[in-house]
Amino acid sequence: MGTAERQIKSPRDLTTNQLDYKYNSLMFAIFFITFTVISLVSLIVFYQLYFSKNSSEKKAIVHLNSQPYSTDPLDYDAFVHHVVFRSIYSSLVSQYKNGTIKGVLAESWNNSENFKIWRFKIRSNLTFENGDPITPSAILKSFTRAAFIMKKSGSNSGLFENIIDFDQINSPSSKLKGIFIDKDEIVFQLSKPIPNLLDIISFGIYGVVHESNFDSNTGNWLNKKNITSSGFYRISNWNDSLIEITLRNDFSIEDSHPNRFEKIHFHWSPEFRQQAHLVMGNSNESTLTDMGLTFFGGANSSIAYARCRSWKNKDSPCHSIENRTLLRNAFYSSLEKAGQKVTRSFFPLGIKSVHELDTKSFEVKLIEKIRVKYALTKNLNPTFQLFEPSIKESVNHLNGIAVPVDIPQEVFYDEYDQNLKSYMADIYMLGTGILIEAPLHDINFMFKAKEGIQLPDSSGLIIKELENNNPNIQLINEEIWNQAIIWPITHYASGFWAKNNVDLSLINNSLPPTDFNWVGWK
Description:
Blueprint: H1 2-5, H2 16-57, E1 59-63, H3 79-85, E2 93-94, E3 102-103, E4 106-112, E5 117-122, H4 136-153, E6 179-182, E7 185-189, H5 197-201, E8 233-238, E9 242-247, E10 263-267, E11 278-282, E12 294-297, E13 302-308, H6 321-337, E14 371-375, H7 382-385, H8 387-397, E15 401-405, H9 409-414, E16 427-433, H10 439-448, H11 461-466, H12 473-483, E17 486-492, E18 494-498, E19 502-503, E20 520-521
Parallel strand pairs: 1-10, 1-11, 14-15
Antiparallel strand pairs: 2-3, 4-5, 5-7, 6-7, 8-9, 9-10, 11-18, 12-18, 13-16, 13-17, 19-20
């Protein structure tokens, strides 16, 4: 009996109430299961969307228009290094935060004696990537090394040559009256007032580096693909296709972007351009709007120009000023035919007193057939892309032969030296930038510093003018034009093309937006 009573009855044996109860229970179970499944699916979808979004946004892709080649701050002036390495090594202060000079290694500063003495109080809680503290002593070693290299090369960068006892530097460890430690401060004693020292020392060549990165006797950089970070990011990978930098959680100051990139991949191959969150470029590249990118940059203070590199070589077609002028004017004619509006001013027209120059050309003819070697350019700037067809057309128009030369990157940068006996090509396409608000420091740096672009001065009149207390910028502009070694083409704004989810609102747009401590996700 017991067994029989426990047997399950068939549906036709159930009462009406029992049927209702079973039906309701079944429907509740179906509803509960359906609700649970839907909830789980929604949660999974939300989880995947949220975390895939955030995981992708942890890594930003930045496309560069050229390949970086050196971590040495003294090589910083190549524009691509502004973008990649400005966040790797720190300066005492930074002018890259919008609207202010921001202390980085220095927490405070002051000046006295009419800007001839500057004191920087160094933060006590910051370290290099390897854990060593960034002390006043470490900073002094870095500065002395840079000053020694600059003195040895005869460079005038605008700062170190003006410290007291600069001529006494004979090693990277020299003791100087002009830079010294006072407790927790770095002190500069200058031979002349430098009111804009904060702007100058924010530049990357004054980035602080660890003493293990350079030879203690010569000051030479040991490995151009290696550096012990003193900044917000560190290099975590460097191969033939990318440089990866990673945010340092052990390095922070009280101010930064609230949602900084955790990793940044820098690519220079064209195939990565479509994937990039940020594209290093300029205001002329309007086709990037088709990729959903918006341009962020400052004034039209950058200049694209052609340069007769081999003008000192008697066998070069650029040696004669008449030939250079004729080549320039033919080149301009070809560019204008291709739709490029050409400027007759090397300096940006936003600088007070600067204006376009006389366009009259010398009435000369090339008697002998010329052979002009020109450097190939891989720059994606539309103006740069016009260089090859225009230089070929202009040389052919003058009954010459134009020969393309593909120059290795390391040779290309080595050729900034003005005293080489020969160069791989005669004419190069280049670009640079000037801060319109304070152009004189940049102009001095361009002509006098070995760490910069080393603009030529065939007559010596430009250097002579720069020695005056108040140099005439337009007079220098005219002399650049008359020497016809530099052929200005167009001005543009440098900056980034960015996707909508990237926030560049904290960056100082007067400068190339390069310090990723103040860049992040929206």
